[in-house]
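> call design_seq(struct)
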């Protein structure tokens, strides 16, 4: 074999190795893109879940506040009724 043929064979071998490496990198790239897409999707799902939980937590807080407000309101109504009864008694005593 002459020197030129050896160089051509060597170049062909190098070209084949480079081509194989490009194919492997393309496969790895595709795999990484799919993994990234799956991870991004999972992250978005988790973010939505966190938001839903935060919304539920806020609703529970609001419901607790409303419940306490209703209890406070009932207590206030009872106090007002008691005061009105006492005022009525005072008016009755003054009317004698």
């Amino acid at each position: 074999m002459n020197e030129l043929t050896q160089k051509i064979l060597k170049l062909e071998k190098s070209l084949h190795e480079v081509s194989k490496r490009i194919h492997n990198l393309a496969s790895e790239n595709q795999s990484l893109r799919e993994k990234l897409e799956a991870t991004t999707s999972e992250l978005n799902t988790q973010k939505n879940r966190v938001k839903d939980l935060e919304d539920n937590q806020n609703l529970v807080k609001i419901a607790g506040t409303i419940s306490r407000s209703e209890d406070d309101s009932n207590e206030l109504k009872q106090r007002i009724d008691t005061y009105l009864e006492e005022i009525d008694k005072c008016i009755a005593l003054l009317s004698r």
